[in-house]
Every structure is written in structure tokens, then in C-alpha cells.
Amino acid sequence: MVLLLLFVAAVAAAWWYTHRQQTLVEDTIAVYYVKDDGTTLVPWRVSLGPARDRASVAFYAATQCVAGPPPETQAVRFPAGTRVRAVDVVGSTADVDLSKDVASSAEGGFAESAEFKALVWTLTQPSLHLSSVNVRVGGARVATLPGGHLELDEPLTRSSF
Amino acid sequence: MNRSRVRAFSSTLVAALAIAAGAGGARAQDRAPNLWFQGTRLIFGHAAPMQGDLAVSTRDEGLRRFLDRLGATVSYQPQERYVVITAQDRRTIVFTIGDPGYTIAGVRAQAPFAPIADGNDVILPFFALARALYVEPVQGPAETVLQPRVGALDVRSDGSRTFVTVRGAMPLVTTTNAESPDHLQISIAGLGSSLAAARRAPGPAVDEIDVAVGGSARVPMTTVTIAGARGTTHRVVPGDSPDAFTVVFEAHGPLAQVSPPTPPPLGAAPPSLPPEYSQYGPSPTAAPPVVAGRATVTDLAIEPGDGDTLAVRVSLSGATAYEWHRLPDNRWYVDLENTTLTGPGRDEHPPFGAVQSVRVRQQGSSDAPSVRIAFSLTGEQRIDLAPSDSGLVITVFDQPGDDLARSGTGQTGGVPIMPSATAVESASPAPWKYGPATNPKLIVIDPGHGGGDTGTAHNGLTEKVLTLEIAERLRSLLVAAGWTVRMTRDTDIDPVSAENLARMRADGKPNADDRAYLQTRCDVANNAGARMFISIHANAAPIEGAHGTTFYWYKPQDAPLAQALEKSVIAAAGSFDDGTRHENFYVIHHTTMPAVLIETAFVTNPGDAALLRQPSFLQNLAQGIANGVKAFAGAPSSNALSEQQ
Question: Which residues pair with B325 in a beta bridge?
């Protein structure tokens, strides 16, 4: 009987833990951008709609990050036209597929670093329970952006920057 | 579920089914309103009137054309519930499937019906979306004109200046009707307006703004008149996108004297403050200036302090004087004078709500070094500094403080040691202890990009050309100093080895060719057991203001080389010091010896671009790098000798 109770408790705890990781209870989420000094991260908060499942919120957060902060804000921004094609959540990794516009303008390490730093910080905020971000471009994995510098072959984490 | 909800749900479902059915019955556009946009009829393939709006599928070609004209994009991932439309000016309009509430740049609004999932697409309320993009449906007798409008007129002030930003649905075509220094009237063709007709005294340099609309529904015209305050002047500057422009009115009287200084970037020297900025000047209680001594930061620990505080404990080997400043944008920094860091700079993001980041950097020159510790705070938090037995303790409080001082000075370790001639001698060369140690006299120089990979190109400058020229100058200097030098390329090619191409392709990993190109550059140094690897690049940014020289490192053994190069290049070339930065760049990650990627200057910055056109600047950059190599490793013969020992 005791073993049965322990088993039920363990199942309940596992369900609670999994469920907690799959949905968000907050009404807002942080989205980061990098200021035009190229290094300073700044969060701003955006409201969530009724959809709170982790995959939806990750997609939403990535899309907001790529769109960038309000126009009057001085920020390093993704190249114009860049959009998030898809975000798949696999375990603790977000697989982000960006449109090819992200590679439309050959930029130096300054912009690349700032853009992806913001994306990684947005998707690895604690409430999403994600630790790394894998980047694809136009559906394909890439070593770097064309003519780029930052290594995108392996998932990026906060310590990549 | 109440009755009205049932009715709404039913009509939504019927409309969705009608749209999804497409050509199954009468053609959808026959039921849709007669819509005109920019002089042409907008035809939808899948649309139906619904609850005073128009239900349109995201797969509809008509919707796609409409959004393309406005420079907007749709992001939607099947099976998920958010649909995000990004406007040309980067505002986001966010719909949620099943919820009539939506947001425009974070502000909530209500649509007549909730978006509906339709397989891999979504059915959206079109008119609600159009209005969010500053396009207003104007009903005529037999048609509905989708009229693009001037949708926002933002006014902000900064001291003596007032900025008026006009933003429309589409690129703005303007005509200046009347202009004098303190008055401007501009007409915007093709756009109507949803703005209030007049604003009185919106800023210190502007007395009044009037907005008038003329023309017809199909060919509207909006006229904006701005009356500046007496004695002001103005200038028009392009906006951050083609659908916006900004008019800056500036007062040239007493107002100008109260303008706060622009905060410098964190890497910049402390601001030199004119006396009239008393709110930013030294506090009355600040310690008197002291003569700086010579000290070394031997350790820096960031840890929870007493109560709800964060403590940064700086261990110092000697006495030093310091000066701190609080900037208006929630940054705070302290400079330790005549002090050097023993390790690389640091960027920390402690798990403490009041602190966004802590940045530690070596600054100054070899004979006047300083260490800057800078905090980005979330507000006006109180920060205390106190000398300790081992150096200095900086305590950040979680609560905002009242009436905080803006700057101050102090000293640690008793009476500072006066600088002496011996104190500024350069440190002994760092011991060589990394890499395969097979070729201690060899330095590999990597001129970035090449061949079909041009790198960045702006202001008439092309990165691959600049990098090769600097590399060739550097090669001459290093060879003259006794080093053996190998270049990853010495012509306009993007080098790649057949072995790497074959190996990478055999690995089965994606994007094998790109990796093969970059790995080839690394292998030139790895296979030869080079002493160090220096990759030369030119930077670019979407922001014209970004400028300076940046030194990127990845492995721990890269950091001392990056610091040595930073110090010597800035001294020799005189460019702005953008600092050393830790980044996962491929060529410094996959080389096995100390490696640094130098972004020499920004081709996108007019000042930097002018420098990069001067052969003397390129030569000074090369000389600075050569000096840094010497500071880091000494002379090549001494290394060879120590290696034999």
C-alpha cells in the first residue's frame, strides 16, 4: 500500500513538473534587444494572449525579438524583412528557423553578435525552461551566415557570448 | 455557452467554411466588398464579410499583395496560436486564434471576431489588420477605398530640442510648401490622416502642430504645419524606415544651457563635465582628488551581500584612487586609476534583479592604465563604495535611492604610491604554454573574406580588399622583427582545401562546404603549430554611429593576446577603443593557439571609413598589431630559446 502511494505521488510530481514546464502562468514575457553600443542587453516586456503553451510562447517571443523593440528605440536590429518561419521546442533546445532575409546584408561581427545574443537571451529566459537555441536559415542548418563570423553550427547558449 | 456566443460562433464557423470552400459555391470576391487600394482593385480569392469586418485567409494572394505593398510580413506556425504581423516600421500586430482581442505594438484592441485556424493558415479580420497598419477603409457609394494614412505623430523633447516624428502607412513622398527657420509646412501626397487636427505647445521648442487633410478618398493629401518657438531653427532628418521622417526644432537661447550631456558608451572615457551641469558634477561630499598610485586587480568576486544587496569585491595589490559616475540612463561606473587587470575583461549578468550587467574592462594607455567597472541597473539604485582590507567593495542595493549623488572620488590602501619611471615599464612577455609548440617563430595572419566572399561593403570600401592590405603591411613588419609569417591568403581568393571539402562532406553534417572554407584557414595555423593566429576584418553595423576597433577572443588563452593587441593598436592607430569581446567566432574557436579576430574599424561609420581610406591609418593599424605581438610574446628569438630550455 505504501509503495502504491509512493508510486502515485511520484507520478503526480512528474506530471506537475512536466506541466509546469509546458505552460506559462505569467501575463507577460521578456523580449531582449541589444543597444546600439553592441553589447548592452535590454529587456522589454510584451503581453501574452491566452495561449500559454511553451511552444506557442517561444514562437511568439522569437518573432517579437526579430521584429525588435519599438521603432524609436536605438537598437541593433535584424536585417529588414527577417521573419521567424518556425520555432520547434525539443527538450531544452529551441530550434529557430529564420527566413533567408537574415543573410541579406553582409554585416560585421558587431551586428551578428548583437542580433543572435538578443535572440538567445529571449528564448532562454527562465520561464521558458530552455537552455539553448539552434538556428536554421531558410530551413537549412548553417555553419555561419554567408560571409559571417558567428558559429551557428551548434546550439547557442547564453555563455556563447 | 450563452445564446449570443452560440450565434457568434455559428456565423464564424459558417464564414470559415465558406472561405475554406473557396470556389465551391459562388466566388468569394463576389460576396466581398469592392475594395480599391493605391489605384487598383484588391481582389481576394478567399474572403467573406463577417460581423462588420472581412474574413480573409493568410494564404490569400490578395492579402499577400496588400501586405507586400506595405512592407509587412506574416509569421504563423501551424498548430500554434499566435499570428504575428510585423509592419515596416517594426511594430508588431499580434492576433491569437480564438481570441478577438489583439495587440498593436503592445496596446490591446478588439476585433469583431476571433481569428480561426484553417489548416495551415488562419482566417483574420482584415479591416482590423489594415487599421493597425495605418490603412483606413473609407466607404464610398459603390466601393471601399483602403486609404493609407499618416498614423502617428510622435513628439519628444531632449533639453532644448523637440523632435517631431511623422509616421505613415507607406513611404512618405513630401513637398515643402513653406519654410523659415522656426516654421515648416510639409504636404504628404497620397496619404490621409487619422491624427488630431492640432496640438498646442507639445514641446519646449515647438509652439503648435496643425494637421489638415485634403484631396479625395482615392488621392488624399495631408499637410503638417509646425510652428517652432521664437528663435528656433529646424532640420529634417530621414526616419528609421522610408515611411517616417523627423523634424528637429532646436532652441538657441537659455534652453540650450540646460541640456543634459549625452551619456558616453561604456567603453568611452569618463565625461568631462562643464561646470554648469551641476547635477552631474562632483558631489559636495566627494573626497578631494588624489594622485593615483600603481595597483593591480588580482580578483573580482560578484556575490550576494548582506540583506537584499549585491556585493562586488575587488581585490587590489596596491593603492589606487578612484572616481565614479552615475549616468542619467541607469548606468553607474567606477574607474580605478593607474590600475591594471591581471585577467581578461568580464561581462557578468548576476541573478540580482536590480543589476542587468556588470562589465569590467582594462582601459587607458600603457603609461596611464585604468580599470573600469560598469553596472547597467534597472533603476536609480543606491550604490555604496567602501575601501576594504583587500581592496574595494561595491554594494548595490535592490531598492531605489533618493537624492543620489552623481559622482565622487576616493582612494584605497592608504597613501597612494607616486608613479615612477620603473612603474610603467612593460610587463615581461607572457610564457608560451598553449598549442602544439612545434613552430614557435610562426605567426599566421588571416586576411578575412576573399574571392566571392567580399565581406561587407559600404562607403566605397570593400572588406576583403582592406583586410588583405592591412595583412600585407603587418607581414612586412613581423618579418622585419624576425618572425616567420604565413598568410591564409595573399591574393583575392577564399581559400579551401580539397581535403577539408572531402572530409566535411564525409562527416555528413549540413553545410559542409561553408565549414570547409573556414576550417581551411584554421588548419593553416593548426597544422603548422603556429605561435599565434591573427584574423583581420573590418566591421559593419546597421547603425551609422557604431565605430572603433574591436578585439574578439574565444578561448581563455586568447584573452591576454587580445588585451595586448588592444592596448598597442589603440595607441598606434588612435582609433576608438571598442574593447575586447568574448564571441564564438569560428576561426578563433577552431584554432588551437592564442587567436584573436580584430575588427579594425567600421566601414559603415563615416569617420572610420575616412580613416580606412588613409594608407597611414592602415600602416598604423599594422604597426599597432606588431607592437601587440611583441608585448604579448616578446621577440621571436627569445621564445625559441625559452622553448629549447
Answer: B333, B407
Distance between B542 CA and the closest CA of chain A, angstroms: 7
Q: Is the entire prediction scored with pTM above 0.80?
A: no
Q: Which three cell numbers stand for residue B32?
A: 466581398
Residue A133 is inside which H or E element, if any? strand A132-137
B461-462/B116-118 β-pairing: unpaired
| Total residues belonging to chain B | 645
The amino acid occupying position B100 is P
Q: How far apart are CA B40 and CA B43, in angstroms?
A: 9
Report pLDDT for B444. Answer: 96
> Letter for the amino acid at B476?
S
Instruction: Pick A59's closest partner by Cβ from B80, B167, B518.
Output: B80
d(CA B635, nearest CA chain A) in Å:
31
Could A50 and B96 be called an inter-chain contact, meaning their C-beta atoms sit closer than 8 Å?
yes
pLDDT exceeds 90 at position B603: yes
Q: Which of B209, B200, B203 is nearest to B157 (CA)?
A: B203
User: Closest approach of chain B CAs to the CA of A111, in angstroms?
Assistant: 5
**H or E stretch covering A132:** strand A132-137
Shortest CA distance to B342 belongs to which of B360, B322, B365, B324?
B360
Residues of A in contact with B463 (CB under 8 A): 106, 108
- B583 and A149 within 8 Å at the Cβ level: the answer is yes
Compute CA distances B411 → B53, B238, B318, whole Å.
Answer: 69, 48, 11
The one-character DSSP state at B394 is E
- Measure the CA–CA gap between B308 and B310, rounded to whole angstroms: 7
pLDDT tens string B186-222: 888 888 887 877 777 777 888 889 888 887 888 888 8
A105 to chain B: closest CA residue: B456
Task: Residue A35: list chain B partners with CB under 8 A.
Answer: none
- Give which of B130, A56, B111, A29 is closest to B103, Cα–Cα: B111
- Distance, in Å, from the CA atom of A100 to the CA atom of A82, rounded to the nearest integer, reads 7
Where are the extended beta strands (E) located within B492-641? 530-539, 549-553, 577-582, 595-602
Q: How many CA atoms lie within 13 A of B288 on its CB side?
A: 0
Q: Say what the ipTM of the complex is.
A: 0.76
- Encode pLDDT of B365-401 as tens digits: 556 677 888 888 888 888 888 877 778 889 888 877 7
- Residues of B with a catalytic annotation lie at 599
C-alpha cell recorded at residue A41:
542587453
Q: Distance between CA B293 and CA A39 in Å, rounded?
A: 31
**Partner-chain contact A56 B81, CB within 8 Å:** yes
**What does the alpha-carbon distance between residue B449 and residue B468 come to, in Å, rounded to a whole number?**
9
Strand partners, B68: none
Say yes or no for a CB contact (<8 Å) between B82 and A49: yes
Do residues B603 and B539 touch, judged by C-beta distance below 8 A? Answer: yes
HEC secondary structure over B48-75: EEECCEEEEECCCHHHHHHHHHHCCEEE
Residue of B85, B84, B67, B78 whose CA lies nearest to B117: B78
Residue B603 with chain A: CB contacts under 8 Å = 108
* Distance spanning both ends of chain A, measured CA to CA: 52
CB contact under 8 Å between A64 and B449, yes or no, is: no
Of B476, B550, B547, B558, nearest in space to B525 by CA: B558
**pLDDT single digits (tens) A90-148:** 888 999 999 988 887 667 788 888 999 999 999 999 889 898 999 999 888 888 887 67
